[in-house]
Amino acid sequence: MTLLQNIITGISVGGLYSLYALGIAVVYGVAGIINFAHGYFIAFAAYVLLALAGVPVLVAIVCALAAGIAIAVATERGVFRFARGADPGTLLVLAFAVALAIKSLLTLVAGSDTVSTSFGSELAKPLQIGSLSIVWIDLVTIVVAGVMLAGLALLLNRTPVGVQLRAAAEDFTMARLVGVRSNRVMMVAFAVSGLLAGAGGLLLVARSGTLTPTSGLQPVLIAFVAVVIGGLGSLPGAVAGGFLLGGTTVALQVLLPEEIRPYRDAILYTLVIVILTFRPQGLLPSANERSRV
Questions:
Q1: Is 119 among the domain residues?
Q2: CATH value at residue 95
C-alpha cells in the first residue's frame, strides 16, 4: 500500500506543477513571453483568499480565481500590450519588472511577515481506506488539476477561441494573416493563465498553510523548469514536464537514503540537466521550437 500512496502523492504534486507550468506555457506559446510574473499572479490570488477570511469559503474561492484572472488581464492590457513586437530580452526584463512590482505591492499592503491561515486545514487529515492512508489535500489537488486540465482541453479543442489560441501558439504571424484577432487572443491567453494562477494559489495555501510576498518565487521556478523539460511553447509538453518533475521529486524523497535527502533538489536538477543535454528541445516541443533546433 505504501507504493500506491507514493504514486498518489506523485500524481498530486505532478498535477500541481502542471498547473504552474501551463500558466507560463500558454502565454509563451501565444505571446513569446516567458512570464516570470506568473508566480506573483499565484501569490496575488492567494493573498486575496486570505483577505476574505470569514466570508463563505465558496465566495472566497471564486473571488481568488477572479483575482488571478484580473491581475493577469490587467498586466496584459496595461504593460505587455504596449511592448508587443519587442525583442525577447526586453520582454524578459519587463516580465521581471512586473513580478517585482506585484511583489512590492503585496509587501506594501500585507507586510513582509509570514502569514498563517486555516484555509484547507481540514484537508490535512488522512482518508483511511483499509490499510491505505491518503491525505485529503492530495485527492483534492488531483481532482482540481484534472478538472482544470480537462477544461483547458475542451476550451482548446471545442471552442472557436480555443482553436485560435492553438493556431496562434503554433504560428502567431500566420494566425494573424488568416484573421485571428491578436488583441483578443492575447487577452484570452493571459486570462487562462490567470485562472490557472488562481487555482495554483488556492492549492498553494491549502497545502502549506502559510504565505509571504515571495511565495510566488518557487512556483514560477518550478513552472519554468517544467516548461523547458516539456518543450517551450508546447502545452502537452508543459503538462508532461510538470508530472515528470513532480513524480521525480516524490520518488527521490522516498528512495534516497535519509542522510542524502537534503540534497534532493540538487539531484533533481542534475537529472534535468542530463535530460536537456540529450533533448535540448524538450520532450514535446511545439512546431516553432522544432524548427529552431
A1: no
A2: 1.10.3470
Nearest to 102 by CA among 44, 23, 63: 44
pLDDT at 289 over 60: no
Q: pLDDT-derived band of residue 232, with 50, 70 and 90 as boundaries?
A: confident
pLDDT digits (tens, 9 = 90+) for 114-126: 888 878 778 778 7
| CA dist., res. 120 & res. 195, Å (int) | 19
What total of structural domains would you count in the chain?
Answer: 1
Confidence bin at 103 (pLDDT 50/70/90)? very high
Q: What is the pLDDT of residues 30-41, one digit of tens each?
A: 878 888 999 999
pTM (two decimals): 0.89
SS (H, E, C) the chain: CHHHHHHHHHHHHHHHHHHHHHHHHHHHHHHCCCCCCHHHHHHHHHHHHHHCECECHHHHHHHHHHHHHHHHHHHHHHCHHHHCCCCHHHHHHHHHHHHHHHHHHHHHHHCCCCEECCCCHHHHCEEEECCEEEEHHHHHHHHHHHHHHHHHHHHHHHCHHHHHHHHHHHCHHHHHHCCCCHHHHHHHHHHHHHHHHHHHHHHHHHHHCEECCCCCHHHHHHHHHHHHHHCCCCHHHHHHHHHHHHHHHHHHHHHCCCCCHHHHHHHHHHHHHHHHHHCCCCCCCCHHHHHHC
